[in-house]
Amino acid sequence: MSLMDSGKVLPLTAVAWTSNLGCCPKDFTLISITEDGAAANFTRGFGMKSGYYLCYSKDLKGSVVVSDIQVISDKDSIPHGYSYIREFLDSKTSVSKKKRVVVRTSPVANVETAVLDIKLTAKSKMLLQHYTYVGDIHGYVLWCRKGHFSSPTPKAKPRSISLEMRSLSLEEPSAPALPFRPRNLPPIPQQSRLSNRRHSLHAGDVLNTPADNSLQAITALDGVPFSLHPDFDLQASGTALQLNSQLNNIRIKSVKDIENEYNYTFTVEESAAKRIRPSIST
Q1: Whole-angstrom distance, CA of residue 179 vs CA of residue 184
Q2: What is the band of 1 on the pLDDT scale with cuts at 50, 70, 90?
């Protein structure tokens, strides 16, 4: 009961008639005994040499479930959407047509509730808790239980891809795996892409390079020593005093001094533009 209440019971996918265990398919369960202990063999009349049983399946390979089950008379027309249950009988067995069992099947993805179980009782006065009365059939009472069900999660099938299909893939090929190297050994030095001149730099010059160590950071001046021209070296040149005197005579002009010194009023141009052109006397 706890499994049914929690919705962990598979639904019925098919109901059928069968003569015996030998005729019953492997994925079907035969109901041989009723809930009150009687034999569930539907044997009626003197001309019948063998009986027949109800059986059911819960195999979800067909992706359909039994959403409803009914018992109708042979004089009633079959309801819309229903069908007679299948028969797995031997040549000596025949099913009575006075009462027929019909079922309605639906795709498993289209329904939330289905028939979870069916049972038989030989005494009509006996009631089964949590089961619904379906109908009387040849001295037996058919019961069913409906409810929510849980279908098993479909498993993804591994796909086999041929070598020709792999060659058509747009993905970049993965890098080859590095060979195994013990942890205790020192790391293998990577081959540098820098020039020999770059290797001759001092450690201080290397520290001043960008952190990414990319080739874009290398310029033409890397490694070239910087020194001041001798003419401007005050300590090495004997003309230090003369150079100092020349530097002291430099006068720094302000913006106003420059405008006053180089101011031009354009008066000559303005007077020339105002001149009246001489007229020719006739």
Answers
A1: 15
A2: very low
Q: In the structure encoding, which two tokens stand for residue 237, read together?
A: 């040149």
* Statement: residue 7 has pLDDT above 50: no
Distance CA 81, CA 102 (A): 10
**How much is the pTM?**
0.51
**Cα dist. 266→258, 261, 263, 272, 274 in Å?**
17, 15, 9, 10, 13
Tokens of 19: 């003569």
Number of alpha carbons in the 13 Å side-chain half-sphere of residue 257: 4
Q: What is the 3-state secondary structure (H, E, C) of 227-263?
A: CCCHHHCCCCCCCHHHHHHHHHCCCCCCHHHHHHHCC
- Pairing assessment for the beta strands 99-107 and 86-88 based on DSSP bridges: unpaired
Instruction: Say how far apart CA 88 and CA 93 lie, in whole Å.
Output: 10
Of the candidates 33, 43, 55, 51, which has an alpha carbon nearest to the alpha carbon of residue 120? 33
Contact present, 50 and 19 (Cβ < 8 Å): yes
d(Cα 231, Cα 72) in Å, to the nearest integer? 122
Average pLDDT over residues 108-112: 88
The structure tokens 């893939």 sit at 169
Q: Identify which of 55, 70, 71, 84 has the alpha carbon closest to the alpha carbon of residue 139.
A: 71
Tokens for 147, please give them.
């409810």
Question: 165 and 186 in contact (C-beta within 8 Å)?
Answer: no
User: Between residues 190 and 275, which one has the greater pLDDT?
Assistant: 275
Domains in the chain (CATH in brackets) are 14-148 (2.100.10.50), 235-274 (no CATH)
CA–CA distances in Å: residue 21 to residues 11, 12, 119, 234: 22, 19, 18, 118
Q: Which helix (H) or strand (E) holds 269?
A: helix 267-274
Strand-pair partners of 105: 66
pLDDT winner (highest mean) among 30-39, 175-184, 269-278: 30-39
